[in-house]
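Journal club side-thread
Mid-discussion, someone asked how the predicted structure for our own chain would compare to the paper's figures. Pasting it here so we can look after the session.
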Amino acid sequence: MTKLSRVFGFAAISAIIAVVVASSSLLAAPMKGTLVVAVNQEPQDLAAQGAYKEINAPGLRNVLETLIAVDPVSGEFIPVLATDWERIDGSTLRFTIRDGVSFHDGTDMSSEAVAESINWVWSLENAFTIQEYAGPGEITAAAIDDSTVEVRSSEPDPLLEFRMSLNGISSPAQLANNPARHFDTPVGTGPYSFVEWKQGQYWSATYNADWWGLEADDAYGTTKPEFADLKFVFRSEDAARVAMVQSGESQLAMFPSADECARAADEEGYSCVTGPSTTYLYGRLDHSLHADERLQDPRIREAIFAAIDIEGIADLYGMASVPQGQLGARGTIGFNDALQPYAYNPERAMELLEAAKSDGVDVDGLKIEVVGRDTTPRIKPIVEAIGAMLGLSNIGSDIRVQTPAEFNPRVRITGYSNEPGRQMMQVHVKQNPSGDYGLLLLSNYACPNIDDPTGPSRSSVYCDEEFDSQLSEALASFGDERGERMRELVQYVHDRHLIVPLALLDRGHLVEAGLDFTFGTDHRIQAVYLASAE
């Protein structure tokens, strides 16, 4: 990838520091000032569990580190706080913990501390949102000796390594003495330590001169930390993030529009760097225990999907491609080549509605609420377009764009019973970084427990005993058998018109001249992957 360059005007200082570094075993403080990143939303929290969600907690991995991580170039697992790991059986992993690491509060990172942090994050009682990425069993950890931690799932779990690349490891002293601050004051082991979270404006961190990666041969990243401070500024509007880079107020901006990326090609001060992601845009149609009973009618659901021009939505989003009838890209374990996108056919939609009406279904009373979250890029024109498409097929609609505080509770199972009889299609983005349909099927389609709304399917709007039984067997399978079982289930949900895949998303970043930005399909923003361009 070709990136931009910028001259910071610190040549003389840089030369002096370079001499000091060359003659000393200690790494001097970074030569540059503050790296300012314009991000698309304020974090939902800064807890260790939030390290899995770069979109909702941008930049958090600069402070909180994981046991292992996915290399942004190779896509392979690489060591972070664990130097080695092995699979003991279908349910168990054993990690060798890196020696000599300290948390930012001075607490030693012992094997007991690591186990305690894992148990805290994956606790079913705590029910953090990382449970959306949980597997078929409960995850627990135990210290085996001073340098070894064993992580176990109560059920066989082929994706246990992936799940251990998600959760941050945080200070046991904080959990013991002030657990409430765990959510807004992260204490990790990373190359930067947390400074402050100014609500509604930014969160910041400063260089950690004691970071273990400064001297470790196997430290992750493409460079040692080059910036003294990090500042993540919250700007939900695309234009505001673009303006920050154009004015030199920030060096990096998340997720500009396709038009802004194209415009950047003619600019001298910055460029747009793009790449594929594991993120997809979808429309999830209510089919829950509390939804309008008309949405149980397969003709109604098929008519709604036939009314949507998926190719048009992908074009409207920009930097996106049309999914092949499923929530994921080719290469995902369980990808079904036999599927095609739902066909845009308004005439077919109206025929289905007339057939339902002739059987006594109150078709004229349908009014689908098309709702999106305002932090989703370009969400307003997308939900407006879907509403207009439904109207062309004589399906009523109500368009709504809500803040995360309004949107999030409504699309979890606890929100269903508060709105009996609702007719809703949530339009949202979600990631599947596991490369396996098991995670996606469990979180999107498995029947949630209304009495215990804490599991991975807490946002599902579907209940089907046959599907749940087959999924349970598939999640415990390995190898070729797993792929075949997943393909069958992908076909199963496709045929029932539950979720309409709208776009597979590329992601872009505006990058100031002078920086080289390396990122993977998860598009994580970590300072050790931001280097001065040569």
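Post-session note: Confidence is low (pLDDT under 50) at residues 1-29.
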